[in-house]
Each structure stands twice: as structure tokens, then as C-alpha cells.
Amino acid sequence: MIKHMLAGAAVVALAACSLPEDVSDDVGVTAPGAPDAPEAPDAPIAGDVTYENNSKGNSGGEGGTREFSYSWPGQVAEIPALAAELETRRDAQLAEQKEWWADALADCPEESASCRNLSFELSWQVVADTPRFLSLSHGFYMYTGGAHGNSGRGALIWDREAEASIEPKAMFTSIDELDAAISETACTMLNEERGKRRGGESYGDEGEWPNQCVTMEETVLFVGSSGGDKFDRLGVYYAPYIAGAYAEGDFEFILPVTQAVIDAVKPEYRGAFAVK
Question: 82 and 109: one domain?
Fold first, then answer.
């Protein structure tokens, strides 16, 4: 199933990961808060589309359950081409899970129940809705057997003018230019948080895992807007194991858009950004 995970998503194999507690106040991302799976919102936005597909089976052992849930907000449903794209992604993920399910029922040892239980949940949320762009994030949880599930985040931007989706990082001239614009700030924030989680230790900006300064290539990037007109802040997400041990969880930080950030944006997108 992993090969069909959305581009830009952070995936950690065989690990039940804590998702960020809250970035909605700062970037507009509604982040899942449960340690093992994204929480459903108390009340869905009007027009939300939720797709669920559930199965039960028995391979001669204790049986098993397959669960699948995929949803997106009303703003996506209002853009037929974007909705169709997410439907295609959803259907590919579901088809792969069904293949995995058939294999599990056929091959899972009778005494093992975990490999006959599959679960996948993914929920898209709006990060920012500007005149030209709809910026989205998602949180996902996937269980395919074993001691832990997998969880992470991903991002996507719909360009209304081009009528096409792009990854947030694709708005920049290169990963190196993006690193040069925000890496120093991001690394400082990461090292401060790592220090807190590691009992007050301090870290520089260089070194090997788990003390390294993580390149933006290994993160998930979100673009947000405080006023709904221009992108003026960035969210940087580090999945578990990317910046530290699994027990330390994941990391997420909010950075302002600066002139250095705008200079790193491709010319065709610079008008969509503003210094905060």
C-alpha cells in the first residue's frame, strides 16, 4: 500500500506515531491529535465527502477486519477536477488494500490474528484558500499487521489558474534554495525542541542522526495564509525517526515567510507570497 501513499507524505514503517498536537491556530492545518490514528472532527464541515469501506473475513483462524476511510472537505468537492484526482488516489489505495487483504486471508498463519486486520484512514483538511490556490494537508494512519501502525502527514496545492495540483516544494526553485531560506531557523527550532525532549541537552546544527540538521528534502512542507490572500507562513513537519528516535515522536514548526523565502520561490508563484 505504501507506494500509493500521497506524494509528499511522511511514512514511517511499522511505527505507531504521534501526530502534531495542534497547528491549526498558526497555519490553518487541522492536525490529527490521537497518538495512533487521526481523530475525526467533532462536526464535519458542510459538504465534506467521506468514503468508508469495511470488510470482515475468516481464514480459518480468528477472522479479521479490514477498515478503510478517506475524506476531504467541501472546498475540494466544489472543484470537480480536484475531487476526481483525489477519487483516483483513493481508489488506488483501496484497491491495493483489498489485494493485501486477500493475501492476508490466504496466507496469514491460523494462530496469528494481527495480519488479518488492516486499517487505513486519511483525511484532507484545508490549510489556506486564496483566490488562486487551495492549500491542503492530510493526516493518515495505516495498519498492516504487527505491533504498530504507520502515520504521517502530507500536503497538496490546487492551482485554479493552471487547473492542476502541485506539491508545495514544487513552488520553489530548488530544495537547496528552500534550505538556504529557512534551514537555519528550522534547525534552531528543531534543536531547541529536541533538547527539551532529551532532558535539556543542547545541539548544534551539524552531526549525524539523531542530532543532524534535517534537510527540507526529508520534511513535509505546508503553505498557509493568515488573511486568505497571500501565503505568509510555512509549516515544516518531521515524521518520527526523521529527526530523532521513535519515542521522541514527530516535530512540526511554523515559520514566517521572509524575503529570503520569496526569493527562493519560482517567478510564476512569487506573487502568491507575502512577507509576514
Answer: yes
What's the DSSP call for residue 6? P
Residue environment code for 233-265, b if the CB has 16+ CB neighbours within 10 A, otherwise e: bbbbbbbbbbbbeeebbbbbbbbebbeebbebb
Q: What is the pTM of this model?
A: 0.79
- Decide which of 137, 167, 197 is a domain's last residue: 167
What distance in Å separates the CA atoms of residue 50 and residue 90, rounded to the nearest whole number? 11
Domain that holds residue 260: 170-272
**Gap between the Cα atoms of 218 and 206, Å rounded:** 16
Tens digits of residue pLDDT in 68-78: 999 999 999 99
Specify whether the CB–CB gap between 4 and 140 falls below 8 A: no
Contact 235/254 with Cβ under 8 angstroms?
A: yes
Q: Residue 190: which of 254, 234, 247 has the closest Cα?
A: 254
